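Notes on consecutive records. When two proteins share a document, each keeps its own sequence and its own token line. Never mix them. Below: protein one.
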Amino acid sequence: MIKKILGSILLYGVMAAVLLPLLVTLAWGGFRHERVMEAKTLYHLSDFTADREREAAVSSDSELEQYVMGVVSAEMPALFPKEALKAQAVAARTYQIRKMREAGSKQVLYDVGQAYATPKERREKWGSHAKEYEKKVAEAVRETKGEIMVYEAEPILAVFHAQSSGKTEDSENVWVQKIPYLRSVDSSGDLTAPNHEVQTEIGADMVLQKLSRYGDLGVSAKTLQLSVKERTRAGYIRQIAAGRLMLTGKEVREALGLRSADFTVEKKGDTFLFVTEGYGHGAGMSQHGAAALAEKGMSYHDILSHYYTGISFEKTA
């Protein structure tokens, strides 16, 4: 009998512990009211609104897609047409997937040569346009989610550059190896890009010093001359004589920090005047060229198929 009484007391105690908070909650307006009040107190309702907006804009459920968001934000101006941004998203994703497979990694690699902007860096970069640009870039990423470019069933080397000199460059003129989908194509939209043609003056002493990394030029700064001997079909310098050395345009560009290997050069007294066209190595997709094609109404598939010869598309997930 005593055990029954103690058991009943214990049961009632447990029920009271469970039901009493329930009754109090209902008396003050129910579960819904309590949950909203808690959210306001702990997180602020604006935080939930911002989260929902970000989720609606990005709709990404993987680190890869968030990575692509960061690359597109860093590599291409957000004011570019959305189809150009979508082309950049596919190129960035393809490049990453290729590098992950080469490394045998299932994790996203952040040191593969693509620029990347964190959410904080994007807000600082975009300032008052942050909300607008974040949504625009996020949509470009979401609308191409999981999509990559392939050639013979393998992710391509999806290289890109800021702007060409009017035509993109064949891969073998940049990295020696001939790659079938990195062929020279028209990119005349680059001709009207900002700073397409830039003048740079460098003292002859500095030119001699910088180019001497490749060997003895056999001349003094006073007698040094640079003479273009051959250009590629895209217009970039293939060979240029520097004193007694024969160099490539790429070597001169890298040594002197020029914007591209498509340049003219003239010596004036003790100074060399370089006039460059375009910006970057010139192979693969031109970002300004992509924007120009998007302005003409081309889709991101058409843009990418233009810059990467003979490729096709597939989904990674």
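Protein two starts on the next line and is unrelated to protein one.
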Amino acid sequence: MPKKIVLLSCVATKLPKPAPAGKLYNSPLFKGSLEYANSLDPDDIVILSAKHYVLPLDQVIAPYDKTLLNMPSDEVKEWAEEVLRRLRKKYNLEEDEFIILAGAKYRKYITPELKNWSSPVEGKRIGQQLQFYAQKLGKAIKEGFVKLVNLIFGR
């Protein structure tokens, strides 16, 4: 059975000391994308890291200063090849569903190798992404509250 995998992007804003990757990145954008990723009930969530390639949320790492944004295309392509090599070890790139919450530079050389992928934030600027997460999470919170009320009152 195909898995649902969410790929998040690393961000520049990090805690000043080593921490699990899911907590190290602490910008509002990362927090929103992680919360949204969790709301999708995926089989796995991993972070695409400019330095570490593919990170599980619980892997402890030290803060670093590396981004794809100022890397030349050939380096980004090499980075993507290593990311794909690591993804292939754990996931089925032909069958699994990948939801990518990362910018164009992180997706560019990865998506041609993924058969089933989507990027609900594609084409959105940072402010629009934050608004997207807020709207989606607000809806999820409301739906959860309605389900809870219905459970309590047997509707």
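For the record: Strands lie at 4-9, 19-20, 44-49, 53-56, 60-61, 97-101, 116-118.
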